[in-house]
């Protein structure tokens, strides 16, 4: 469900995409799945021979005939599954994890995910002061 278009490699980096799906289990309970898919650089081990622009096979390939690895991009997905239907909040959470991962920030992903799971959602209709206190405790 997280790759409806298939797991295809790409020669170009594609922009991240976000979507949600709803899965229903055997007890008819709904599970909301938020998916953030991005493309990460991989090395194609088969590589490609470097040749001159005119394509003449008789000329010596650059760099002594070595096979140069071709760069390809592979899809990777971050998925958040919940019984709650809050796609924009989940998009923000996955976007935060993605940013920390891609930018190689000096912050452990385990701590980030743990903070997300221990966050207390304010009760609907609660005071704004209660919400601010809970947010301050995370920082």
From TrEMBL:
Q: Which Gene3D superfamilies match?
A: 3.30.450.200
Q: What Pfam families does this protein's entry cite? A: DENN, uDENN
Keyword Transmembrane in the entry? The reply is no
Report the gene name: SBF2_2
The answer, when asked if Hydrolase is one of the entry's keywords, is no
Give the source species.
Ataeniobius toweri
Record key words, sorted: Guanine-nucleotide releasing factor
UDENN domain segment(s): 1-139
What is the protein's given name?
Answer: SET-binding factor 2
């Amino acid at each position: 469900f997280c790759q409806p278009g298939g797991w295809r490699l790409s020669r170009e980096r594609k922009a991240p995409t976000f979507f949600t799906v709803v899965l229903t289990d055997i007890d008819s309970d709904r599970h909301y799945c938020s998916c953030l898919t991005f493309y990460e650089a991989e090395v194609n081990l088969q590589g490609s021979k470097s040749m001159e622009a005119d394509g003449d096979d008789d000329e010596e390939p650059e760099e002594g005939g070595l096979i140069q690895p071709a760069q390809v991009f592979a899809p990777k997905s971050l998925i958040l599954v919940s019984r709650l239907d809050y796609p924009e909040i989940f998009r923000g959470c996955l976007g935060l994890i993605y940013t920390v991962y891609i930018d190689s920030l000096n912050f452990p992903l385990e701590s980030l995910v743990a903070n997300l799971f221990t966050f207390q959602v304010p009760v609907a209709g609660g005071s704004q002061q209660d919400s601010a206190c809970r947010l301050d405790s995370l920082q």
